[in-house]
Amino acid sequence: MMNCRLFGVVLTGVSLVISVATAQEMKVPDIVLNQSGYYPKLEKSAVVLRADSESRFELLSMPDRKTVYTGALSELKTIGYSKINTRIADFSTFNRPGQYIIRVPGAAESPVFKIADGVHHDLAVAALKAFYYQRASSALDVDYAGKWYRAAGHPDTSVYIHPLAASKNRKADSKINVSGGWYDAGDYNKYVVNSGISTSTLLSAYEDFPEYFQGLKAHIPHAKNEVPDVLTEAIYNLRWMLKMQDPADGGVYNKCTNLDFDGMIMPDKATSKRYVVAKGTAATLNLAAVAAQAYRIFKHFPEQYPGLADSCLLAAKRAWSWSVKNPGIAYDQDALNKMTDLKVNTGGYGDGNFEDEWTWASAELVASTGQQEYYDAFFARLNAPVSLPSWNNVAALGYYTLIRCEAQLPGQYKSVTSILKKKILGLADRYLAAFETGPYHTVIGASLNDFAWGSNSSAMNQSILLINAYLFSKKDVYLDAALSNLDYILGKNATGYSFVTGVGYKSPMHPHHRLSFADGVAEPIPGLLVGGPNRGKQDGLRYDAEPELSYLDDVNSYASNEIAINWNAPLVYVANAVECLQTGKK
After folding, report:
1. At residue 3, does pLDDT exceed 80?
2. Is 441 annotated as catalytic?
């Protein structure tokens, strides 16, 4: 996710218009809930923000307005970092499909919501298709893109080698082809270190739920038959990542970028000179991990993708070898800019700690090859504490992989998975405590630290960890806790927003996203998860003082309203996982 500040005077007037509209739209309902709906057999709750002293709530069927369920509101929930008080209306035991509202005396009635099987199917499809809309170097045809069709931009077939990326075989200002891939966020640059976790999360969704994804259609172009759409889309970025590897030595360039961010224009109008910049250990280990994982998957599609699996494994091993020889090369953009007149001012994705990348890459290579070298590298880092994945903290991705591939591991390695499961469950149990005590009956929001940059991505990555805990423990409480964060994303939060464009009755209309701003279409591209409440307010705009209300549906709000591939990828995983898993709860 990039800090994509807006440039030029064009937005000065627009910002005022948008801010006025946002102020009008910001009224929060008295009762907030999942605007997409609820599954009959899984946990269901809403949050009453203005319940006063009332202790009961009613569920009314629609449109006949008959009372079908009466329940007790929770005690008043208060938290140390906010003045907002809440009560929870839990109706999990009610499982009749239909349309309903919630009524609490002294509060405005809730909006209409539904209870149904497959209630998040449209969300699951939209979140995946959002990656199609982020494709670089390709025109989007109206037959697939609808009113968001567009001309191709950034062909990236003749990208310059930046002077600080020059090598013996690739001189400065020579050109290479790094076409394809996804635009990273609201900007038009492409970053390997953020593509890593994003691509891997899509591949992991397929590995965890392969039969389900065989039947999921996102209406994207198909070059090959009988390949699930999630893999078709992942391959579009995977092939770009492979092009970012120097064939001479196996090292990987950090990003393909302009020197500065583009203005708020469409891709075909953005024609600034493009560069690949210095290689780094983080980027190279990201490719090693993703390519090793891709090998496991695409070796099962030899007819559709002849040679791809072998190419991926070779790329992974060469990236690993380069990293062994270059174990500590950070991409420090500020330091690099002091060494050249050709300064790069786009997102740095700088990361000086590579222990998590070593853990992840070694785990993927162990799962794909069984070779001792990679297991030794993984085992040497086993004592590190587990923490929530993010673009610069990817160790847990390796844990998920080894647990997922436990049955296929060589016998001498299988004992390590019991250790990994305990580590995952330890963090999952901390999330359960937050779920039970949190003010919104969600995992996210129990701590002030939850409201940071990309808070919605943290919510979805918490859910992925909980789903992994559920998959190997089979304890329903982990699935319920995971689902609670999806409720949060879709409206059961202090703002009353569904944070996914095009999903729900109140969703972002003005994301910090060049494609959505410049295309002339009133509605933003659908299926995009915005960053969410961010108490840091790094864009300098005026937000509500409460941390959980520090969100603006304003194109200028890059701190709370930008989109990013590493935020959408966990949304794809979670929405599709719960769609798959809810079928087993009937």
Report:
1. no
2. no
